[in-house]
Amino acid sequence: MAGPNPTGFNFNEFKAAASPRSVWAKKDPWARYETWRYTGPFSRFNRFKGLFPGFGIASVAFAGYCAYEHFFLKDDHHHGDSHH
């Protein structure tokens, strides 16, 4: 177990003061001018919403085709059977 710090240096206060959010978020004079970058049409969801256009429609179409093939396109020939 560590004893008291002989130098008097408080590492926890140093970490809190050195974190960028605590220092610059309070003192940045341009912070209010930068908020538009992360709100409204530029929010994280809206930026990545159009990343894969058509993926939803293609997924539904492929699932529909797989269901159609499974239920309606039965192979009656059985080419691998040995009895003729």
UniProtKB/TrEMBL annotation:
InterPro entries: NDUFB3. GO terms for biological process: electron transport chain; mitochondrial respiratory chain complex I assembly. GO terms for cellular component: mitochondrial inner membrane. The chain crosses the membrane at residues 50-68. Keywords: Electron transport, Membrane, Mitochondrion, Mitochondrion inner membrane, Respiratory chain, Transmembrane, Transmembrane helix, Transport, Ubiquinone. Its main location: mitochondrion. It comes from the Eukaryota. It is a single-pass membrane protein. It is found in: Mitochondrion inner membrane. Belongs to the complex I NDUFB3 subunit family. Accessory subunit of the mitochondrial membrane respiratory chain NADH dehydrogenase (Complex I), that is believed not to be involved in catalysis. Complex I functions in the transfer of electrons from NADH to the respiratory chain. The immediate electron acceptor for the enzyme is believed to be ubiquinone. This is NADH-ubiquinone oxidoreductase B12 subunit family-domain-containing protein. It comes from Aspergillus avenaceus.
